[in-house]
Amino acid sequence: MDKSVESWRPSAAIETLCERARLLAEVRRFFAERGVLEVETPVLGHAGSTEVHLDSLSTEATTPAGRERLWLQTSPEFHMKRLLAAGSGPIFQLARSFRNGEVGRRHNLEFTMLEWYRPAWSLKALVDETEALIRTLLPSAGVRRLRRYRSLFREMLDVDPFTASLAALQHLAGEWGGIAMDDIERDGCLDLLMSMAIEPQLGRDGIDIVIDYPPSQAALARHVTDVEGDRVAARFEVYVDGLELANGYDELVDASEQAERFAEDNRARARLGKPLVESDRQLVAALEAGLPESSGVALGIDRLIQLALGRDSIAEVMAFPTSRC
Amino acid sequence: MASYSTNEFKAGLKVMLDGDPCNIVENEFVKPGKGQAFNRVKLRNLMTGRVWERTFKSGESIEGADVLELDMEYLFNDGEMWHFMKTDGSFEQYAADKKAVGDTEKWLKEQVTYTVTLWNDNPIAVTPPNFIDLEVTQTDPGVKGDTANGGSKPATLSTGAVVRVPLFINEGEKLKVDTRKGEYVGRA
Predict the structure, then answer these.
(1) Pairing relation of β-strands A143-148 and A206-213?
(2) Where in this chain does the entry annotate a coiled-coil region (chain A) (predicted)?
């Protein structure tokens, strides 16, 4: 921790924080006009995210049940889905989220996630709404383009991310990273290529929406069949100016498949020597009770504000990044 | 020597890479939303001065480098090595070779304090102070009104360095020089 005398000061200028407040007010107006309910759900939960590459923070708390381990959310997804299953209708939340180890120019351990859900909406309709929201904060954003994950790899790297051999992907990723990748799994290689070779080129003159992700990268999205007849994850990601802004899903509503994905995540965690995470049985119970067919999206609001205000790092648009808190 | 995980990477950290000590210049955390994280790191190789760009898998560890930067006074050159002495009162001496001294050779003046970078107790680099006072040993007499060369002329200093100086500077004068740019600042 920086203990210098100046470290008490916020990393964002007070004027920037005024701009931030104005942009957040615009977000709330956007949803109010569309009849989407603002909700607040707990930051601490009895279960965490099992996602293999998300590291949750947890804490010990004294509750009526005694000493318990509670998890800080990596996103408000699970609690919000329980609201959907309980009949909330469309909801949004500006939620504090926590991801251990994620610190950098575009990352902070604690950040604000804008997440919203649209029952009975197709993924396509949600893509349109996400674009509309981004344009309210970034009125000068250029055209929108739909880009298929697979086509991006074919066009920019001359490789098919679905059919290329693991060895070929490891070799290519190794060239881009300048490191040996032979102990990295398929998705890890694709992640490296995506973040180092492709992402910097996305959203350079507009809003790039990437769709049709590999089925192994579905997280909580449903699997569907793409135009080439292959299984893909029904998700989209939004890129503006080389920055990943949002991640949307056609939400998985099948309780047993969800439970199986949690278990598979924890098996993958075990293989990588990572701590296991208590999976969310209450979410699975909510899915069993019946989650309406929904589309949902999570958007990194700090990054969007960073772009809207033309700043270099998210620390410049938050009062106190982790290094100063 | 301790090893450092990518979580501990920050500018200024000294680590070993490919057998050479390096200084981390920049560390960028890269991660697709829910995918695998990597660190893109710029490192300066302290032996060659070259900047390397490398990727590390997040959580990976690399060995720290036993590198120290110490203030030392320049003593003399014995024809092969340049000798320095610690300024902490210990009078401990170190001999730096041609490779370690590098471009700093032309700024070496006795009794001036330099930053000497030690790796495993051996000098690998010598950095001059940002400003140093040196005497002009040779320069052509300036002619008033001669502005063909932008009003400046070359001057050779006592250490061998050549800098451009205003026309009114004469041999024997002491000048203040910026060693980073190799530029005349003013009369000392």
Answers:
(1) parallel
(2) none
